[in-house]
Amino acid sequence: MSKITKAVIPAAGLGTRFLPATKALPKEMLPVIDKPAIQYVVEEAVNAGLSHVLMITGRNKNALENHFDRAVELENLLQEKGDQHRLGVVDEATGLADIHYVRQGDPLGLGHAISKAETFVGKDAFAVLLGDDLIDPDSDLLTQMLRVAETENASVVALMEVAPEDVSKYGIVNPGALNGNVIEVKELVEKPSADLAPSNFAVIGRYVLQPGVFEVLRNLQPGVGGEFQLTDALNEMAKNPGLAGPVIGFVFDGRRFDTGDRLSYLKTIVELATERGDLGADFSTWLKIFTEKL
Ligand code: G1P
Predict the structure, then answer these.
(1) Does residue 158 line the site of ligand 1, with CB under 6 A?
(2) For ligand 1, is residue 232 a contact (CB within 6 Å)?
(3) Over 80: is that where the pLDDT of 2 sits?
């Protein structure tokens, strides 16, 4: 088991792609079938041994805190009814992890959000999990990334190859030698146009960072969109390993589900629903009949 125990989950985005649903509800609370997206992410962190979690939140995020807290009235009601199953489901989110919260204040970008974690993180390496990306719960991606970060004293970014027309949505790396799943990272560029992208290896939302990243973030200039970009800090680190250790890519060959926009969110729900023990068979039967009508 890794010595790294801390996870940082940025959850301060405004969720404008999902308005009006996100007018009063944090986008991280949107359900993927019957569980808020953020709970899948916290479960992933905990499964990798990261039980100290910091969420970087913003306005309108009370529902997030409530979700991971006790719901005494509801628990009492379910207890009286003898509904142990639902009681268990409610309890799952409560006891999951030791969750701390800090507010980002101004929404100045992912790099700025991560800099708010410095007091919580201290001098330890830590993981960052972005809530828009769900990783197949059966995969051990984060565990493997933690192992690489520890043995190499490096920061590690999870990578997947994307279609050329999609490179402008991601941080893209300039890769060096590949050894198994591990790839050298020479440079990172945030959201390049297809003709300027150094490859099609995209950073998906999982990182393990060395604490030296905070010093780099402090000296960072605003980047794409006028925001402080984590990708730019990692680029500095990749080019000057003396700053905070090297940056290494971990090529993920499993399944990633994107819940960041409406179409991919719908696809995620359909795919995961077909695999559910309780719903999958009925849902798949219906889906086959339904798609024949399309
Ligand atoms: C962020 C990062 C980007 C990364 C992406 C992964 O972008 O800035 O480098 O590739 O997450 O999902 P966002 O999706 O927040 O625009």
Answers:
(1) no
(2) no
(3) no
Distance CA 291, CA 123 (A): 53
For the stretch 151-163, pLDDT in tens is 999 999 999 999 9
Q: Is residue 133 a part of any domain in this protein?
A: yes
Of all atoms in ligand 1, which is nearest to the CA of residue 171?
Answer: 9
Instruction: Answer yes or no: is 289 within a domain.
Output: no
Domain containing 152: what range? 6-260
Backbone angles phi, psi at 182, to 5 degrees: -95, 135
CATH number of the structural domain spanning residue 164 = 3.90.550.10
User: CA 196, 198, 204, 209: dihedral to nearest 10 degrees?
Assistant: -120
Examine residue 191 and state whether it is found in any structural domain, yes or no: yes
How many domains does the chain contain in total? Answer: 1
Distance in Å, CA 287 to ligand 1 centroid: 32
The tokens describing 220, both together, are 């960072």
Using left for φ > 0, alpha for ψ between -120 and 50, and beta otherwise, residue 180 falls in left
Q: Read off the pLDDT of residues 31-68 as tens digits, 9 standing for 90 and up.
A: 999 999 999 999 999 999 999 999 999 877 889 999 99
Model pTM score? 0.95
CA 170 to centroid of ligand 1, rounded, Å? 5
pLDDT score of 106:
87
For ligand 1, mutation pick of 129, 167, 170, 185 (most atoms within 8 Å of CB)? 170
Q: Is the CB of 207 under 6 A from ligand 1?
A: no
> Does residue 285 fall inside a structural domain?
no
